[in-house]
Amino acid sequence: MSKKNIHPDQYCVFGNPIAHSKSPLIHAAFALQTGQAMAYERRLAPLDGFALAARSFAAEGGKGANVTVPFKLDACALATELTPRAQAAGAVNTLRFDGDTILGDNTDGAGLVADIMRNAGVAIAGKRVLLLGAGGAARGVVLPLLEQAPQEIFIANRTVATAEALVAQFADALGHPGQLRAGPFTQPEGVFDIVINATSASLAGDLPPVPASIFGSHTLALDMMYGAQPTVFMDFAAQHGAQVRDGLGMLVEQAAEAFCVWRGVRPQTQDLLAQLRGSL
Which is nearest to 67 in space by CA: 140, 138, 18? Predict the structure, then answer.
């Protein structure tokens, strides 16, 4: 038997803080399901020492890592190669170490799209999508959403110039003119099919100042945050007739996508998602 079979391949998640991360539980379940010999741990990286921590892990034989707040930009800078979706996002949440090569990928957008389409059963093609926020979380999902050919994506943000910069950045990816627009939170008009909260407002118990008229009975309102309780955004959307969803499915789906980047096999997610949902 080769050494590789005796010693499982090492993976980890870097963050600061990191103790709350569900990633080790998720990837342990995926490894078991797919019969992959791998070990996965949490690693707290110093705020000013991510690159050194990642290089040290690779030098110890680490094969790959997930990267969470606040290191996604640092991971992007560290990578020697970027996938097109990581390049578009300008942020990296998945690293694969292969000799001197450090591949940087971003699986957040693919995870969001998979959760909306597969788990929530909502098509994106031809739909009106409202994306709240224009920071790193929003930037990571624009290209994967555009690839599903929505009728339009409206990016609403407090600082309109930041949202307009995103529209300019993705101009080459548009299927038709006007498919991607930007404006203040108060501007979106009419009912949207999908409303995605990519702001950090939920962490503070706040609500982006959007008009209630954006929600209808067929609207899917998804908050990227997740927890035991619905967020303020989810409550607000539900009060105005929308179907609501938190970010737990996105978390599990982006992990499955990262697992596939590392191991070449995509795990099933439904059972694990139900299990995690029950434990919140």
Answer: 18
Q: Among the options 3, 63, 72, 127, which is catalytic?
A: 72
Q: Is the pLDDT of residue 4 over 70?
A: no
Contacts 24+ apart (CB under 8 A), 54-57: 54/14, 54/78, 54/95, 54/102, 57/10, 57/12, 57/14, 57/97
pLDDT tens track for 43-59: 999 999 999 999 999 99
Q: Are 174 and 151 in contact (CB under 8 A)?
A: no
Helix (H, G, I), strand (E, B) or coil at 97: strand
H-helix or E-strand containing 30? helix 23-34
pTM across the whole model: 0.93
- 146/181 Cα distance (integer angstroms): 12
- What is the mean predicted confidence (pLDDT) over 188-209? 94
178 and 170 Cβ atoms separated by less than 8 Å: no
β-pairing, 101-105 vs 94-98, is antiparallel
Please confirm, yes or no, whether 63 is among the known catalytic residues: no
Q: Report helix, strand or coil for 95.
A: strand
211-246 confidence digits (pLDDT tens): 999 999 999 999 999 888 999 999 999 999 999 999
